[in-house]
Amino acid sequence: MAPARHGTDIGARTGTDPIADGKAEAITQLMLEVAQCFFRIRALGQKTGLITSWGGGAFGFMRSLALLGPLTVPQIAQMRPTSRQRMQQLADELAAEGLVEFIDNPKHRRSKLVQLTRKGAARYGELNAQLLAIASTMGVALDEADIRKTAEIVRQLSDDVKVRSERLP
User: How far apart are the C-alpha atoms of 152 and 8, rounded to whole Å?
Assistant: First the structure.
């Protein structure tokens, strides 16, 4: 008689023989839950205006500038899993709305810095307040320490994924 197995048999689903250990299964489940949560957050963000219908990223882009000050488009792109071209497009769209502006970069003649305008800083403040208002009504059954620990775990896994991704060609 075969020993009882605990957890999900990943091998049965993938057609491979090895059975993942409990930690690997747990990390897989966490990654899938985070992905599902991301898509739900994005949908909520689009419904509330935190994420634009044309692809989003504006809040995160403005948040980077609000927290870190003026940055180049390549610097912003390096912080995200996206292309420099996409960040340039987003910068141009935000500039057209008067939310960011391009300024001279004392360290590089051709690579301008992007900074929030007053209008952009005000809009970022509004969006941030709206996000905090939404967040304050979520997770009422969870305590703050558990939420902070979960955020730290997700950050560590995200850092691990980033390092692995950078190693690939």
Answer: 26
